[in-house]
Amino acid sequence: MLTAEDRALLKPPPDHTHRWTVALRSAASHATNGENEGDQIGGKDDMSYFIKRVTFKLHESIENPSRVVDKPPFETSATGWGEFEIQIRVAFTSECNEKPITLLHLLKLHAYPVVKSIQEDPHLPLPPPIQSWQYDEIVFTDPQDNLVNLFVNHPPTPLPPPSLGAGISRPIPWHLALPKSIIGDTRNVSGEGIGNQRAVPGFHNQLAKEEGERLKAAVTEIKTMIEKTRNTLEQKEKELALLRSRA
Q1: Which of 32, 103, 173, 240 is the most exposed place for a label (fewest CB within 10 A)?
Q2: Read out DSSP for 133-198?
Q3: What per-residue confidence (pLDDT) applies to 234?
Q4: Cα(71)–Cα(68) distance, rounded to whole angstroms?
Q5: Which three-class secondary structure state does DSSP give residue 213?
């Protein structure tokens, strides 16, 4: 959320409540893996060897809504309120010989009633920064030799399995191209032996379950809204029929 100092420095429109950043990063994180508040998730590997340009298409109400970033870090920041979908267009280098792709990410800021309550009560603390991240894999079908050699010469940092101890217990994305990130040998990427046991993919059970619960809650809310709208429509039709009968 924007503080008084942020507003004095950035001078955002009066209705803007938050400062936010959207970024396209590699999956691997630095040593803390984002466990501490404020730590960056992802971004350990440089992707500029195959990504030439990233275009972020923001909501049209935001100044300069189409933002082009042609070098790392591939990110952009702005102020705003509410929620909207961000289009992320990824253009590849000439060596890839691949067409651009488009990714989507939903930016959802705190609800306005929450913001208003915090702004009106100076005793309420500001909520901590929120990181909403999603894991995507870019699949190149039948790539040319140049592209294959490019990735062979720039292997990504292996991703650890989801339970390695030492405080690292939340799901972490893995990659099929790196066997050590999903099947341990005598020592895995964090230096802890897990034998030949297969690690559980972080995006297979827990996150899928959470996403399913969110979808169920959304369906329930939509059904309630539809029923409420139907009842309102029926009531208005009865009132209209009564008015016509009196005409």
Answers
A1: 240
A2: --------SS--HHHHHHHHSSPPPPPPPS--BTTB-S-----TT-GGGTB--SS-TTS---TTPB
A3: 93
A4: 9
A5: helix
Give the model confidence (pLDDT) of 10-67 as tens digits.
888 888 888 899 999 998 887 654 455 456 778 889 999 999 999 999 999 898 999 9
7, with CB counted inside 10 A (0-12, 13-18, 19+), is middle
- For residues 57 and 65, is the Cβ–Cβ distance under 8 A? yes
Residue appearing with tokens 């099929």: 176
Residue 205: per-residue pLDDT: 58
What is the structure's pLDDT at 129? 75
Q: How many residues does the chain have?
A: 247
Structure tokens of 172? 């972490």
Q: Please choose, from the candidates 168, 161, 155, the residue with its C-alpha nearest in 3D space to the C-alpha of residue 195.
A: 161
Sequence-distant (≥ 6) Cβ neighbours of residue 97 within 8 angstroms: 144, 146, 147
Residue 94: how many CA atoms within 13 Å on its side-chain side? 0
Token digits of residue 98:
């691949």
The answer to whether residue 141 scores a pLDDT higher than 50 is yes
Cα end-to-end span (Å), the chain: 55
pLDDT in the model for residue 43: 87
Q: Pick from 91-105, 177-191, 208-222 the range whose average pLDDT is largest.
A: 91-105
Res 238 pLDDT > 50: yes
